[in-house]
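Practice problem 4.
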């Protein structure tokens, strides 16, 4: 069975990620989307929330599995009995970091190859961080992330605004 792992933060999943998920799933028998539980970063969504959103947005792709992981991507790939690690390349600016990561991963485990898919042009500008910034200012993110993610972000930032208002009210 040809199996690949697409690791990432997916905080939140964007249409760009979804494009890479669909296209890489078409190349393998099974694609495992690995959601990193990163203890050093403070994500907007908990790992459970990110997994839940990904489950929802990939429910129509039959050979995709969503799992969370901690630690090194290569160790997770090995644990999944997969031979490839998938990453998306949006632009030349991604290249340095991705090349460094792929080479480091290959030295750590020479049996695992990284396959790069170039992100479709219409999503080449898109990143989770810019989407979070737009959402934090109340902007429309419907062109950037699937509906379920947009809804969950509105709830998050709505709550943050509410909390801020509460703090201001308490201070006045
Ligand atoms: O979506 P992201 O944040 O660009 O994904 C980055 C990710 C999760 C692929 C990368 O940070 C990662 O693999 N983290 C786990 C630790 C690891 O294996 N680091 C690579 C050694 S260079």
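Answer key:
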């Amino acid at each position: 069975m040809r199996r690949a792992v697409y690791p990432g933060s997916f905080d939140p999943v964007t249409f760009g990620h979804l494009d890479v998920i669909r296209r890489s799933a078409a190349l393998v028998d099974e694609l495992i989307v690995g959601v990193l539980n990163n203890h050093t970063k403070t994500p907007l969504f908990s790992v459970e929330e990110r997994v839940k959103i990904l489950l929802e947005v990939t429910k129509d792709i039959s050979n995709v599995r969503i799992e969370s992981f901690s630690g090194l991507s290569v160790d997770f790939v090995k644990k999944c009995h997969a031979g490839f690690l998938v990453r998306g390349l949006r632009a030349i600016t991604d290249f340095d970091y991705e090349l460094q990561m792929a080479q480091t991963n290959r030295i750590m485990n020479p049996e695992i190859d990284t396959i790069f898919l170039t992100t479709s042009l219409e999503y080449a500008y898109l990143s989770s961080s810019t989407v979070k910034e737009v959402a934090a200012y109340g902007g429309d993110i419907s062109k950037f992330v699937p509906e379920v993610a947009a809804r969950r972000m509105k709830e998050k930032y709505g709550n943050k605004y509410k909390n801020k208002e509460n703090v201001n009210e308490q201070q006045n």
